[in-house]
Structures are given as C-alpha cells and as structure tokens.
Please model this.
Amino acid sequence: MSTEKARVGSAADSPTASMTLGQYAIVGLCMFLNMTDGFDLFLIGFALPHLPQGFATESEKGFIISLALVGMAIGAIFLARLADRIGRRATVLCGLLTNIVGLAVSALAVNEYMLMTGRFITGMGVGVVSVVIVVIAQEATPADRQNTATGIVMIGFPLGSTIAGFGGAAALALTGNVWQSLFWLGAALSLIGLVVAYFWLPESAAFKARIAGGAAPGTAEAASVDTPVEPAERLGLLSRPLWAITVLLALGYGMLSAAYYFVGTWTPQLVTDLTNDQSAGATAGIVVSVGTFAGTILFALIGLKVSSVRLTTVLLVLGVASVIGFSVLLPSAGANVFAGLLGLAVFGSMSGYTAMVPKLYPVLARARGYGMMLGVGRAGAIISPVLVGFAATRVDTGVIYLLAIIPVGFALLASVTLLVRSARVRRESSVV
Model:
C-alpha cells in the first residue's frame, strides 16, 4: 500500500507528467470530501426557515451562520497548518471527526446557543478539511494539470451544497419538516467520508520527500516566476518575498467569501420573506448552488488552457454584472437567471484563487499559505451574514443584494493587481 501511495503522488510537482489512474482517484476522493464539507456547511440555509417559532431571532440566525465561518477560519489558520508538520492525511482525518461532532451537537440543540456551538465546531472541521484536501490534490497532480485538479476538487463544494438543497428537502418531507434530520443526514455523510478517507486517502509524496530533505522521486518542484527562490519553510507568509501575495490572496478570497456566503446562505430566507413562498426561496437557493457547480466545471475545463489569474479576472467581471441583474429583477422569476450566473462567477473565481496557491508557495508553505488565505479571508464571510441579519428588517431586499457589488468589486481589484504583478515579473524574468 505504501509503495502505491508514494507512486501515485510522485508527479506532484512535475510540470508535464501525465496523470495516472491513481492520481485521478486521489483527486476524486478529495472532491468527495469537499462535497461533504459543502453539504454540512450549507445545511443551515435550508434549516433556518424550519426552526420553531421563537427559537432564534433574525439577528441570531445571522450569528448561527457566521459562527460556522468563525470556526472555519480558526480551523484553516491554526489547525490546518498541522498538515505541514504531522502530515496531510492525519490532519484530514482529525478534521472529519471534528465535523461529525459538530453536526451531532447541532442536531441535539435545544436552543440557539447550543446550535451556535454546534455550527462553530462544524466550521472548525470544515476549515481543516477544505484546506488540506486541496493541497493533497495539487501535490498529486502535474503542474500543468493543477488548475483542472483544483477545479475538480472545488466542484465538490457546490455539489454538496446542491445536494443539501435536494437532500434536505427530501429529509424534511420524510420527517414532517423536522429540521434536526438535516444535521443527522450530514453526520451520516461525513462518517462515510471518514471511513473512506481512513482506508484510501494517501499521504502526499511531496510532503514525505520534503520532510526527508529532498524532492519526490522523479519530480522537479513546479516553480512559476512568482515563486520565491528561498525555501518557503524558512520564510514567514508576511516576509518580504511573500507579503504582497499573501495580502492580495486573502483580500480577494475574503471579499469573494463575503459575497458567496451571503448569497448562498441567506437567499432561501430572504426570497421566502420577499415572496411569502418557501418554495420560491428554496428554488432560488438551489439555482445559486447549481450555478456554483457550473462555475467549477467551467474553471476546470478552461483552466487547461488559460492561467488561473486571467480566468478569475474574467469571471469576476461577470460577477459584477450578475449582482446588478439579480438585484434589479427581484422578486421576478427572471432574477433566478442572474442568481445562477452569480453563483457561477463567484465560485468559479474562488476556484481561481485556490489554484493560484501552488504556483506561489513551495511545498512546506502550501498548507500555511492556503490556510491563511482561507482563514483570514473568512473575515468578510463572517461579517456579511451578521450584517444581512440586521439589515433584513430595515433595508429593501434588492438593495441588500446590490450592495454585494462592493465585495465582488474588491475581489476583482485584487485579481487585476495579481495579473499585473505576474505580467511585470514575467517581463523582468525574460529580460534576465
């Protein structure tokens, strides 16, 4: 088993090697684990309309959503970095176990505070797993296929959120709208993920080689013109060679997270309130989830030919246009078209930011770098649902959605800056 695990990951940083069946299997498994994360995190959006009367106020519902993101930030920044020390595989298993505990606490919640606690624990588990599985998939993939591998893994998250919509609706129908059934369903899915990961998820060959003090057999670590020459393990993420990259990635990803978690978690509730129709709210939420799924597929396909930073910039331009169209057309059914496009643009762009990480950070900084981007970037995601909770009873729904143009615009600015920076460094490199 260990020989095969090393072999399937041995092309992790090779720039042109073809992928083996084993490497595709690793990427597929990481996609499945990301699907469980998306399912678990977005269950709350479909559970909120079914909480008992008086269980939580609108502002408390915002905190219920945001505490999962606080936990996700803590998991990504402080716990996922363990993958650079104890290994990728062990860290993922611990994250999955934490996720299951959080879902069980949520299902057993008797008041809003217990539900907040459960969501916080779930967020920590999701934060750990979502960081490390991307690193595992990228390290098991030749450099020229890393955009596609990232897109495939990222497909799992919106797929999970889409399944949360359909599966959650089925669970509620079968149980007579018992909201706890959603979290038990999520716990069962995560348990399956834990068992599968225990038996089939290998340790990264790139990590084992770096720990041993060398490169993985037959590989040459992928290095773009943006990658620092010094070993990343000797550099802080905010040191001179890395600080601009770290700040731009965190800013762009954070702004995207603010837009995505607002739209993804609040849309069912806000559209339900606007139309007095729960089915309309659920439909809008599902359309956003389907759009995110399409965005990751689009990124995986086009990413074979187009650099991640260029593709991300184009998608964010579409995102700005989609925000405007959705806010103007609410509450008509036509707004759902722009809801789907918004999900496509925002989550496709999130895939783009994720795909930039292995090009900018060498092996022993990847979990730290991605964890920092994902964790610090959650600041916007944590704040936005709370702000929406306070604004829901005071501001017109269309105006609330129109304000989403602010974080999407900042993400576009960060992406354009990274694009200009990359072009400048490439020109300087060609002159040398």
Q: What stands out?
A: Confidence is low (pLDDT under 50) at residues 1-13, 215-233.
